[in-house]
Design goal:
By secondary structure, this protein is an all-alpha fold. The protein is 51% helix and 0% strand. The longest helix has 26 residues, at 137-162.
Length: 163
Amino acid sequence: MPVGKPWTPEEVSQLLSLLREKKTDAEIAEAHGRTVNAIRFKSLGYACNLVLKDGKTINEVVMDLGLSETDLQKELDKRNKPLAQPKLELQPKVQVQPKVEPKVQPKVQPKVQPKVEPKVQPKVQKPLTIIKNSSSKLDELKDILAVVASVQSMLTRYINSSQ
């Protein structure tokens, strides 16, 4: 995208004055020695900042600067458009068993024997066991993959419908 010369504060002030005088984009472009597109881009950019950053209403900005409400709304929609969502690819989670480290005994034993408490092994979550015997493992896995594919399809449709 080609970029023109930077706008000085004086030029922006003059642009706003000419917009408030309801001059056409062509008249303003001629006065500034810039293209009509440069005038539109700068005026809509300034108007968007008034709405998004300064909290002005669209109607206030349109009435003040004499811009098209439709053009301003389109530009605001472009600036508020969320970034493209990445496609979700569901993959079955692999559950990793946490490594349980044995307790390290102190090197010096106290003279008084401490109260011995029964060792409680931390509860380790085991993977979901829905497979009962080895002959039906393949069928069970196929069923699980079918459910995963169905959920992925539903999520994809939901994401596409919300865009």
